[in-house]
């Protein structure tokens, strides 16, 4: 696996989708890094760095957070990126945690935990 932050984020996303999504995921959910749009690559790297910084400034105490709290953090950081890149995004792209499907919540938590393992 590459140590490039955005790629690590994307690989964790794809692994989570494959693990938690019921049925056949949309092709865009599992698009390989090299085929991912530039805005999404930039966003993946930015969210990775936000999570890494959060872990760092807490001295690794994020290990005490619940999976839900970890997933919520990733989801909120991602929403920020959507607003950065899209003037008027679809409501589903900026849905709050409670409106996300369970597979996406679990995948977001997996992403946080992957970054956490690499950071500490």
Q: Which structural category fits the helices and strands?
A: mainly alpha
Rg of Cα set = 14 Å
Distance between the termini: 17 Å
Overall pLDDT confidence: 95
String of helices and strands:
HHHH
Strand fraction equals under 5%
Number of helices: 4
Helix content, binned percent: 55-70%
Return the domain count: 1
Are there runs of 5+ residues with pLDDT below 50, and where?
none
Tally of strands: 0
Shape: globular
* Biggest sheet statistics: none
Task: Describe the protein in words.
The chain is built from 4 helices and no strands. The protein has helices at 5-20, 38-57, 67-85, 102-119. The longest helix is centred in the middle third of the chain and has 20 residues, at 38-57. The protein is globular and about 35 Å long. The mean pLDDT is 95.
Write the layout of secondary structure elements.
Layout: H1 5-20, H2 38-57, H3 67-85, H4 102-119
Helix pairs in contact: 1-2, 1-4, 2-3, 2-4, 3-4
């Amino acid at each position: 696996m590459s140590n490039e932050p955005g790629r690590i984020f994307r690989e964790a996303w794809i692994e989570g989708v494959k693990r938690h999504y019921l049925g056949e995921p949309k092709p865009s959910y599992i698009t390989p890094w090299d085929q991912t749009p530039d805005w999404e690559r930039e966003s993946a790297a930015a969210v990775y760095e936000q999570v890494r910084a959060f872990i760092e400034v807490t001295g690794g105490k994020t290990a005490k957070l619940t999976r839900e709290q970890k997933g919520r953090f990733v989801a909120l950081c991602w929403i920020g990126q959507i607003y950065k890149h899209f003037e008027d995004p679809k409501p589903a792209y900026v849905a709050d945690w409670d409106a996300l499907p369970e597979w996406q919540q679990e995948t977001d938590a997996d992403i946080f935990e992957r970054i956490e393992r690499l950071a500490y």
